[in-house]
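pinging the channel bc i need a second pair of eyes. not urgent but kinda urgent?? the chain im working w is below, pasted from the shared doc
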Amino acid sequence: MIFEDKKVKLKNGEECILRSPDVKDAEKLIDYLRKASSETDYMLRYTEEITMTIEDEEKFINDINESNKDAMISAFIDDKLVGNSSICTIGNMIKVSHRANFGIAVIKEAWNLGVGKALLTEILKYAKKVGFEQVELEVASDNYKAINLYEEFGFKKYGTRSNSFKLKDGSYYTEYLMMKNL
């Protein structure tokens, strides 16, 4: 579904545009994903695992923009993609159609400016508007900034998944499962 453009003022006074990505943003989205993945181990993929083509990304963008409930909101500062969030149904079956999975990432140069808070605010408003009743996420147990942000928005921990991520060096991350009722 398409999210209408919204301007937000960041902590440093800069203006940020929140909007649904368009197919013309496909290359920017791939580059952003590679950059975000290179800046933290909290992302699901390593940079070299991001192998989608521009055509693959264009199809993904079209699919999500044409969805009845799923949405993606991207954050742009001076036309540079600095953050992205998405909300997707857990499943189309009646028994789980009230649940949504949430994901977000912001590139390092935009950390601590309020981009994540702006994206989370808007994606939760959107989720409620389209009828989701529950938003779920997974977060590394030592990603304290993200956990604090989620808790500030009313997410609660409801479980732990040990050894959820195995890093290249052989170490593991444990994840918290978090949920917010809308």
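so Strands lie at 6-9, 15-19, 71-77, 80-89, 99-106, 134-140, 156-166, 172-181. and Helices lie at 26-39, 54-66, 115-129, 144-152. — does that match what u expected or am i reading it wrong
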